[in-house]
Amino acid sequence: MKYDPIKRKLGVIFNASPALRKLFYSLLDLLLLRAWHIRKAIKLWEKNVDGPMNVLDAGSGFGQYVYYLARRHKDWQIKGVDVKQEQIDDCNRFFKRIGFSNAQFEIADLTKYVEKESYDFILCVDVMEHIKEDELVLNNYCKSLKKGGMLLISTPSDQGGSDVHHHDHDDYINDGTHSFVDEHVRDGYGVDEIKEKMKNAGFTKSEVHYQYGKYGKLAWKLSMKYPILMLNASYLFFIVLPFYYLLTFPVALVLNCLDVKVKNKTGTGIIAKAWK
């Protein structure tokens, strides 16, 4: 399974204009179940804060969540950091082009990145599973947060969230036949394990719950897995995708909604919150 070539292909298409890039963000927000859980957690956090905030997106990728936060809060300062220079350059160009002066991006190694007591909120999506020195990174996050600041992590769980023996895709599901991971260094986190690591890093309180339960796993297969399998077979399936999503999209949306609303007893992903 090859995911990066598909991401690059999509990047070329959706970078053709700011309107297409914004459409791309909207599609990611709808299709990716983790984005539903992240937005829910962010909205809950927003209710308890007031005034300008400093936010770090640690592993910002396409800039999807920086855009979400910067668009909602013009008086917030949002910084995205990533290890890939091409991603940083691309995001800086786009955000400058659309006039978002409250968002900036820079290259960073999270094992070394510390800005002491600088941030009110740190977001980390699909990153921790790629970093061997995870406890060091959690410690850096804690140091970089202001007192009372919150860390929000989305990462695979140990309930089948990854298969580190194959390099394919950075999503959560492995059904025994295809692995959808990209250079994961661990199979995933247990609830108690990540709580303990966050406590050891200096956080005073944490909340952890599962995502991608029974509804989410099915939604993921419909909205992500099967389309990626098709595109890996041939890019000609780009022509078929609109018709495929016309049939499956409504079902996937309902399943995503159910996964967010129910309390999953288990799941292939984890949402973890921690406060300094």
What report would you give on this structure?
This protein is of the alpha/beta class. The protein has a single domain, classed as Vaccinia Virus protein VP39 (Rossmann fold). The protein is built from nine helices and seven strands. Strands 3-2-1-4-5-7-6 form a seven-stranded mixed sheet, with helices on both faces. Strand 1, helix 4 and strand 2 (77-82) form a beta-alpha-beta unit. Helix 3 (33-46) crosses helix 9 and helix 8 packs antiparallel against helix 9 (237-261). The protein is globular and about 50 Å long. The model is unreliable at 162-181 (pLDDT under 50).
How would you sum up this structure in a few lines?
The chain is of the alpha/beta class and 276 residues long. It contains 9 helices and 7 strands. The protein has a 7-stranded mixed beta sheet with strand order 3-2-1-4-5-7-6, sandwiched between helices.
